[in-house]
Amino acid sequence: MRKRLAIATSKLKSMMNIWKSQSTPLKMRILKSCIFPVATYGCETWTLTKKDVEKIDAFEMKCYRKILRIPWTARRPNQTILQELGMKERQLLKNIKQLKLKYFGHVVRHNYLEKLCLEGAVEGRRGRGRPRRRWTQDISDWLGFSVREASILAQDRDGFRSAVWEATSYKDPP
Question: 0.90 cut: is pTM over it?
């Protein structure tokens, strides 16, 4: 995951003449079509930790600051930058969540090797220490269901699609 962000950052730097010369809406379209896909390639298979989420958010804000030509020394809050772009929330992590949840639904609905790996259990004892975060823990955290309940829900495409939309939609803070 971190290598993907490094590659996307180098791509972002190589397009410096575009960030300096074009209008903001055009820059946003270029960002979403050329930079974000490089950063999110293969994101369906990532297991996201808190540190990874922070890195993704930092990369996204770095991109927005490049577009608006705001140096990091300006010490402007992220919310003001998002407001200047006319956005309510960050988009990159939301897109990653949507892609991962859609992939989960696809895997659960079909009888392929991926489903067997997802549902399989390894015999034996686990090693010492804290268990690593699992891929399915992201699914259950985002949807608010257990993996088994999410698997049952995924059989109904429309119901699962609305659950994914609900899990990734913007909610105004109370």
Answer: no
pLDDT digits (tens, 9 = 90+) for 27-55: 999 999 999 999 999 999 999 999 999 99
pLDDT at 56: 95
140 phi and psi angles, rounded to 5 deg: -70, -35
Q: What is the pLDDT of residue 172?
A: 58
The conformational region for residue 170 under phi > 0 = left, psi -120 to 50 = alpha, else beta, is beta
Distance CA 73, CA 16 (A): 18
Using CA atoms, how far residue 160 sits from 97, 155, 169, in Å, is 14, 8, 14
Residues composing the chain? 174
Task: For Cα atoms 74, 78, 79, give the angle at the middle one, nearest 5 degrees.
Answer: 125
**Cα distance between residue 144 and residue 137, in whole Å:** 10
Residue of 17, 46, 18, 44 lying closest to 31 (CA atoms) = 18
- 55 burial (CB, 10 Å; 0-12 / 13-18 / 19+) is middle
* Regions of the chain where pLDDT drops below 70: 171-174
